[in-house]
Amino acid sequence: MNTSTIPHHRLLARTATFSRLPAALCPHSSPFTVRMSLSETAPSLAVVGVTGAVGQEFLSVLSDRSFPYRSIKLLASKRSAGKRITFEDQSYGVEELTPESFRGVDIALFSAGGSISKEFGPVAVECGSVVVDNSSAFRMDENVPLVIPEVNPEAMAGVKLGKGGLIANPNCSTIICLMAATPLHRRAKVLRMVVSTYQAASGAGAAAMEELEQQTREVLEGKKPTCKIFSQQYAFNLFSHNAPVLSNGYNEEEMKLVKETRKIWNDMNVKVTATCIRVPVMRAHAESINLQFETPLDEDTARDILRSAPGVVVIDDRNANHFPTPLEVSNKDDVAVGRIRRDVSQDENYGLDIFVCGDQIRKGAALNAVQIAEMLL
Amino acid sequence: MNTSTIPHHRLLARTATFSRLPAALCPHSSPFTVRMSLSETAPSLAVVGVTGAVGQEFLSVLSDRSFPYRSIKLLASKRSAGKRITFEDQSYGVEELTPESFRGVDIALFSAGGSISKEFGPVAVECGSVVVDNSSAFRMDENVPLVIPEVNPEAMAGVKLGKGGLIANPNCSTIICLMAATPLHRRAKVLRMVVSTYQAASGAGAAAMEELEQQTREVLEGKKPTCKIFSQQYAFNLFSHNAPVLSNGYNEEEMKLVKETRKIWNDMNVKVTATCIRVPVMRAHAESINLQFETPLDEDTARDILRSAPGVVVIDDRNANHFPTPLEVSNKDDVAVGRIRRDVSQDENYGLDIFVCGDQIRKGAALNAVQIAEMLL
């Protein structure tokens, strides 16, 4: 892949337009495409938080993957109710989320924040819906599977369509990290991981992406940058992740990596530390990951393992200095891994350094949730 | 410090103007300031590479610190010869660098790239000059001290004014890392460090800063970004450091951290790994540093040690989510440290995570070199 051929305009075009022109997000929305996904025998869907960045991406991914559905309900807060959204050539009215919204819904994809999930998730389950929840509300609940389909599909074995149930989507940083680390973990068992993240604006929602764009324009014009979402200048700057800092000095984002990894790998002994940083990039996260193994794993074997891992692409061209970048993985499904090398600070082949990039909205959120939903079919 | 009070315009103002309006970089250039630094008994100076980003900052730092000098010679390539630069209210013509340039020069500050240092550094020494070299040319030469004045001033004990000699300025990432790590190392001995960097455009020179600004404007206007310095889009993106990748998979920037740390700490056993990433920030680097100690060091003690460390400022307000940022340290002398916390992935108090920011051009290059020169006085 040559980065110079990437349509760079998409970066900002998507940002500026995605709440106004959602149809533009759906590559399959041409009227000449035969729609196989709308089927009377398929499940009925609901998307909760449809006007948000991830909500919009749910629609895009459902369409891209021709997810079969009998009907789809687009749910959001009262403020957004009545808006029209075109999905697969059909115009839908956004409905206000209420406890009655889930009657007859088989699968509900939630991405409207933790408090909405806490309030309406159990209601949906009570109605017989299977909820795939993108918030952190239920992730650490021991009765709720926390699933990356390529990593631990077995965790959702007990959840069946029609019976109601909750499945949690891991945090974006965890998904992107474990997509790369898990294939290596399976071979050589990861004892410890040191993760430093380079996180995009999208993790804080569509408004944060717009704020980054607006601030950048302002700074270039010599104006004071407008700070609404974040408390400080984001353009041409970076800062410690804005999640609340806990009493142990880690912020919540970092502890998600620590705790979710243990749960997803079903390994309470794996040691993880993380430093999460927000960088002025639009929609894809990067992570520098240092791994320590129980058994030796040389870098060539690691590269081969990653090359054959589902959902992973290896970009690791040392001669061309071509490695994963956020821009290159934006709007892509696969997580890209590169800079795969023996860690010179550890005993030979007991450690590796890798660098990983993944689209935060897509595999980090919407795609992973839709993949979970696909496993219910 | 409240970031909202920082004059954010300086970020780009400095970028856009520094090669055209160097006098604007000198806070002491008011005609009403009494100049104490120009003195008949002081050393004669030469600045090699004066038109570059670091060369300009040499002048700024010399002036800020009222460095005493009898005369100053501004040297650059033939292309820049004849340009006029105002320094401390005096206009100087830029002279072409030749082997004759160093006659009568006591201290020569070099920042014109490794090949210029290799060619002209020994010539200057032969002329009796003490060379403080900002390039990587001599850093790993065992006869050349590699010095951070706050860290290992003893290394330059043998170098005296008038006798000729070479002192190497460490790489910017190493300086910023070790400014924070050394005070902790002195107390608890660092056994291993895992470093992930967030490096600014300035490390690749003034033209790279201009490219980042230009690309950002282009992307915001929906245009294809101009890639001259870097081979790929930098605006709203990040990428593995552009230094050549070595056969072990590390790039040269990363191996500088590994090797220079050993030399500066005079500890061939310290284990370091690094992943160096270029982020779209103008002039200050950030580093996420994971430390493993020989003896326990709790986070409160670490914070106290750092608070009293010279050249270090602690910004570590968990309640306000206020930690170091590149913007906040830009144009500042001190290296800022925050996110100081016990590493939950290591045995209690045997590990810490910290996050460090430092101005790449200032402490990462020009300031450190001028501090070295001050030790010769």
Give a brief outline of the structure:
Chain A has 377 residues and is an alpha/beta fold. Helix content of chain A is 28%, strand content 22%.
Task: Indicate the topology.
The structure is a homodimer of 377-residue chains.
Chain A: H1 9-17, E1 44-48, H2 53-64, E2 71-76, E3 84-87, E4 90-93, E5 95-96, E6 107-110, H3 114-126, E7 130-133, E8 165-168, H4 172-188, E9 190-199, H5 206-220, E10 239-240, H6 252-265, E11 271-278, E12 284-293, H7 299-307, E13 312-314, H8 326-329, E14 335-342, E15 351-359, H9 362-374
Parallel strand pairs in A: 1-2, 1-6, 2-5, 6-7, 7-8, 9-11, 13-14
Antiparallel strand pairs in A: 3-4, 9-12, 10-11, 12-15, 14-15
How is this structure best described in words?
Two copies of one chain form a homodimer. Chain A has 377 residues and is an alpha/beta fold. Helix content of chain A is 28%, strand content 22%. Chain A is built from nine helices and 15 strands. Chain A has helices at 9-17, 53-64, 114-126, 172-188, 206-220, 252-265, 299-307, 326-329, 362-374, and strands spanning 44-48, 71-76, 84-87, 90-93, 95-96, 107-110, 130-133, 165-168, 190-199, 239-240, 271-278, 284-293, 312-314, 335-342, 351-359. In chain A, the strands form three sheets. Chain A has a seven-stranded mixed sheet with strand order 10-11-9-12-15-14-13. A six-stranded parallel sheet of chain A has the order 5-2-1-6-7-8, with helices on both faces. In chain A, strands 3-4 form a two-stranded antiparallel ribbon. In chain A, a hairpin with an 8-residue loop joins β14 and β15. The longest helix of chain A is centred in the middle third of the chain and has 17 residues, at 172-188. At the A-B interface, α1, β9, α5, β10 and β11 of A face α1, β9, α5, β10 and β11 of B.
